[in-house]
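hiii, so i know i said id send this last week but things got crazy w the move. better late than never?? heres the sequnce for the chain we talked about at the cafe, plus the structure i predicted for it. fair warning i was half asleep when i ran it
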Amino acid sequence: MAGRNVLIVYAHQSPASFNAAVRDVAVEVLEQQGCRVVVSDLYAMNFRASATSQDIKGELKNPEHFHYGNETMLAWQEGRLSDDITQEHRKVEEAELIIFQFPMYWFSVPAILKGWLDRVLTQGFAFSLEKMYNNGIFKHKKAMLSFSTGAPESMFLPDGINGDINVTLWPLQNGVLHFCGFQVLAPQIFWSPTFSPPQVREAMLGAWRARLGGLWEETPLTFAPSEYFDLSFQGGFRLRSEVKEERGEHPYGITTGHHLGKPLPPNNQTKATPPNDKNQPKH
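okay and structure toks below
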């Protein structure tokens, strides 16, 4: 573990917050392991959330019809992205593990962190049509979400009023992290610390500290491998017929998103599947 680089992308306004305490535990434990830990404190950096033409130095390719994805990809290729994005790119390139630390806002991330995702995960740098999902650019890196909720865990169970937390996490973990190729570790969820007594909050931090001790050896979450799909516009990037036929014998869908009209595989976005599980997709 010595010499490994870790990036913590941190999004909370208060240094006295529970999220700050969680961040500090991660920095302490990982540095004790010999890791080099860099923290991007987005609020302290006054990181811009808006993806605009200000992210590009020099002339636009098509100023009459600004297309952020195309313009920033070209600017990345030509070294014309704004300095704040370039600095974050360097941190991502060096990191072997990225931890996103934040309080859940509206079933997602705070706007400032969404801005980091929108602006830093530049097309070309972080993904392309040829390099995505398990063949993605960052397939040799790990990433994970570590976040607090306002609601207790019971509200995010399959029969809870907020719905299954696995469904809530699918867009972030599959649609952002796995899409860019990251090996996605199970999320660290701190259920309702604001409404928890001090001893419960201390226990949460203790569990996080313990998990960090073995984090590098953890098995990532399971996603449907790209090889399951017809990766062509003619085929619509849809599941191959032979895979559908083979999966017909399984009691569950492949993943939370690829459920195939079946029950969702339990805890697909919150717990790693044991390697010998017969329902696990085979890569």
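btw The chain has eight helices and six strands. thought thatd interest u
miss u guys!!
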